[in-house]
Task: inverse folding
């Protein structure tokens, strides 16, 4: 290992991905390298936030929506030990008794089916979000622990500290923001990769944390950050808060 290479081991060190000899060397290096100590602290904070992102609490409105749906479901009659006797008039079956009972049963079935379907969709969406979080975590961990990881630091005009880590071998990159102010309602932060002088969307970051960059970071010369509408933009519509060179 060259003396300059040891600086790129911060991500792997935090993830316990170094062998014993490398870990000992990097631990000794930390005692005399302030930049690596700061980078290790940032990566540790990031991995802690990522661990919490893999399992999200159900949305606060879920209970309210469930309770509202329950009030629209007809309750079933109590279960009797003996079959109920249908009342008759003059020895003849009262007209309308069966149709009314059938209509009530159908209404109950339809309401229950609607509630069950809604609960199923909610569960499917929650599972999808969890899978996305786990995939994102795996991508970020792979980049941070890559043997060819390269790091660059920057500061946005709104005061946020930023870090970009790239892996040329994996052709992947991740972006970290710390101290990112909350955007105004209806706005969010959008990331961009500059390729051949053109800014192409690389995803979103809504708050402090780490996200993988979409696109082809291997051909990008710079990364940008702008404030855009919630749904995002095809091209930057505001002055960049950050435009920094990709690490090499």
Result:
């Amino acid at each position: 290992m060259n003396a300059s290479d040891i600086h790129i081991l911060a991500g792997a060190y935090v993830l316990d991905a170094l062998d014993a000899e490398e870990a000992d060397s990097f631990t000794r290096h930390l005692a005399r390298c302030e930049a690596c100590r700061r980078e290790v602290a940032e990566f540790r904070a990031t991995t802690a936030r990522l661990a919490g992102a893999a399992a999200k609490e159900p949305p606060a409105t879920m209970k309210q929506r469930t309770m509202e749906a329950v009030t629209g479901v007809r309750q079933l009659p109590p279960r009797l030990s003996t079959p109920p006797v249908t009342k008759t008039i003059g020895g003849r079956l009262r007209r309308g008794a069966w149709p009314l009972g059938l209509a009530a049963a159908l209404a109950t079935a339809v309401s229950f089916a609607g509630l069950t379907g809604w609960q199923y969709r909610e569960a499917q969406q929650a599972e999808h979000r969890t899978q996305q979080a786990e995939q994102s975590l795996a991508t970020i961990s792979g980049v941070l622990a890559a043997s060819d990881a390269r790091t660059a630091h920057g500061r946005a005009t709104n005061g946020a500290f930023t870090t970009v880590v790239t892996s040329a071998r994996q052709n992947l990159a991740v972006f970290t923001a710390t101290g990112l102010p909350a955007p105004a309602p209806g706005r969010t932060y959008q990331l961009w990769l500059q390729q051949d002088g053109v800014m192409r969307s690389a995803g979103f970051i809504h708050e402090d944390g780490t996200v993988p960059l979409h696109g082809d970071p291997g051909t990008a010369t710079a990364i940008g950050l702008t404030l855009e509408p919630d749904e995002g933009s095809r091209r930057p519509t505001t002055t960049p808060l950050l435009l920094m060179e990709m690490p090499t």
Observations:
- Confidence is low (pLDDT under 50) at residues 88-98.
- The longest strand covers residues 187-195.
- The chain is about 40% helix and 25% strand.
